[in-house]
Amino acid sequence: MGVVDGPSGVSFGDRGLAYGDGMFETILVRDGTPMLWKYHVARLHDGGRRLGISLPSEKALHDAMAAACSQVQGDAVFKLIVTRGEGGRGYLPPSVAEPAWQCRAVPFDANTACWQGITARLCHLVLSDQPALAGIKHLSRLENVMARREWTDPRIAEGLLLDARGELVEGTCMNVAWCEQGQWFTPGLRHSGVAGTLRAALLDAGFLTISAIDTAGLSHSDAVVVFNSVQGVWPLERLMGSDGQLLAEWNDLALHRTFQHDAHPFLGYPSLIQ
């Protein structure tokens, strides 16, 4: 299994480059410790199983992470990309493939200003259904790219994505949760979306319950947050429609702070509850 540091080593024939035939993980590392490591490894192995791609051992992954992050002072983000490698005839993969993987760590500072509250918008793009890929962090992320291209206004921090049923799925790069009568919910991601590792930890801890919601329901929720395993939790202060119309506003962020209080310890981040 080949290991390359950086995009200069990607072969023209690599199936990850040609077809998005692979997976990736983006891991927050604090003081040399990878946050939510077991969840990242579990998701990577789930993706490998479903795509039929062999993976490095957990020790090899951890050693690569430690070596990359040793060159970075302070917090870091470690990114790992695994592809099926080269070979095959067109879309047909080779019967025996030698996966390729590369990794890199870069310094990182969380966008703590967004911990105070953000404006989000609904995206025009509708996520397609593909249960065979739902949940895993595969390399074919063109829907997310297209959705993120929909706005350039720096005052909008994230875009929310719906599926063809009109149900909320996720943000362009974050999971979503909403609060009703003191209980926090998140979409089930059976048809599309990425099952984030912080989401997995919160589900395991009993802080989240799987449910479904549409735009109207979301607008009337008591609180809404977007979150991921790198940036932490961003409370929504305003939700805009894809046409720029204000759909909802949350002036009291006390409920949002309780979600941050439960979620941020998984990342070593502070709670904002005073």
Automatic annotation (TrEMBL):
Organism, as annotated: Larsenimonas rhizosphaerae
Pfam families on file: Aminotran_4
Record's GO cellular component terms: cytosol
GO molecular function term, any single one: pyridoxal phosphate binding
EC number: 4.1.3.38
Catalytic activity: 4-amino-4-deoxychorismate = 4-aminobenzoate + pyruvate + H(+)
The protein, known as: Aminodeoxychorismate lyase
Example of a GO biological process term: 4-aminobenzoate biosynthetic process
Keyword line: Folate biosynthesis, Lyase, Pyridoxal phosphate
Pathway(s) annotated for this protein in UniProt: Cofactor biosynthesis; tetrahydrofolate biosynthesis; 4-aminobenzoate from chorismate: step 2/2
Gene3D superfamilies xrefs: 3.30.470.10, D-amino Acid Aminotransferase, subunit A, domain 2 (3.20.10.10)
Family label: Belongs to the class-IV pyridoxal-phosphate-dependent aminotransferase family.
Stretches of the chain forming a coiled coil according to its record: none
Cofactor(s) named in the record: pyridoxal 5'-phosphate
Organism superkingdom: Bacteria
Quaternary structure and partners: Homodimer.
